[in-house]
Design brief:
By secondary structure, the chain is of the alpha/beta class. It contains eight helices and eight strands, in the order E-E-E-H-E-H-E-H-E-H-H-H-E-H-E-H. It has one domain: Rossmann fold, CATH 3.40.50.1820. Helices cover 33% and strands 17% of the residues. An eight-stranded mixed sheet has the order 1-2-4-3-5-6-7-8, with helices on both faces. Helix 2 packs across helix 3.
């Protein structure tokens, strides 16, 4: 593993890691992570894919992990920037030598792909656990928890700290206040930001995507049930989108929203790499 940095179009420096196999490199995979999840969480997948001949790049979005400023208090950003600027910079940097380029996404990663100005450089996109974020798609018991978080717990914590102190709850990295407020607002809509009148132009961005997509969601992913995934990915309307519903039995236990990249998830990773292999042979 080697450290690497990328400079975005707005001159923000983000930091990542490269996992390069010792054998012939047959392709390159960028990991587009979930909201508030640092790149280290995806190390097991990166090591697994590296052993299969893929060079893997993990990175932290601005405001997260190794790409955050000294303090998040007062740090302003747009949640869309994680895709249209940060992930875009990694795609530009990693597509220069002609190797087949793929993206593995997790949750927000499924949103980020449609925001890319350079998605045409990616040969295939495989995403786990993406969804529209609306509480109405969740099981009733989860709805109660999520609504309490959105409307009581997190607003109080964010007001107190000046940023969303997600870590206090053991749920991931802290988030910039502006990013949290956008995320919470868009999760009020059944189709996420597509239902926000101010974001009407995003529909055309997603309709421009031609890269083939696989969207895989676990049946026990309470935050992103298959119905939530379907409400979001339907906006990738001009490309092939294969939907996969994953039974927890496939990994021998619970998956939930975070289990796609935890220990014992090799069968899920193998399916993604096999799909990438199939695309590579056709290029």
């Amino acid at each position: 593993m080697q450290s690497i940095s990328f400079t975005t179009a707005d001159n923000y420096e983000i930091h990542g890691s490269v996992f390069t196999p010792s054998i012939h490199v047959k392709g390159r995979i960028i990991v587009a992570g979930a909201t508030g999840v640092p790149q280290g969480f995806y190390r097991r997948f990166a090591t697994f894919a590296k052993a299969q001949g893929y060079e893997v790049i993990t990175f932290d979005y601005r405001g997260i992990g190794s790409s955050k400023p000294k303090t998040l208090k007062g740090f302003e950003m747009n949640l869309l920037d994680w895709g249209r600027l940060d992930l875009a910079a990694v795609v530009d940097s990693m597509s220069e030598d002609g190797l087949p380029l793929f993206i593995i996404g997790h949750s927000y990663g499924g949103h980020a792909f449609g925001l890319l100005p350079n998605h045409h450089k990616v040969s295939g996109f495989y995403v786990f656990g993406t969804g529209a974020g609306w509480h109405g798609y969740m099981p009733f018991s989860e709805q109660a928890k999520v609504l309490a978080m959105w409307n009581l717990v997190l607003p109080i914590i964010t007001w107190w700290k000046g940023y969303c102190a997600w870590r206090l709850l053991g749920m991931g990295e802290d988030l910039p206040r502006s990013a949290f407020l956008q995320w919470r607002y868009w999760c009020k809509f059944p189709h996420y930001f597509f239902d926000d009148p101010k974001m009407s132009g995003l529909r055309y961005l997603y309709q421009s995507v031609k890269t083939p997509i696989v969207a895989a969601n676990a049946l026990d992913d309470r935050w992103a049930m298959p119905v939530s995934r379907d409400a979001f990915v339907k906006h990738y309307s001009n490309t092939s989108v294969t939907k996969v519903d994953i039974s927890p039995k496939e990994v021998g236990g619970e998956i939930g929203h975070m289990g796609y990249f935890r220990k014992n998830s090799e069968p899920l990773w193998g399916a993604a790499l096999n799909w990438f292999d199939g695309i590579t042979t056709k290029l």
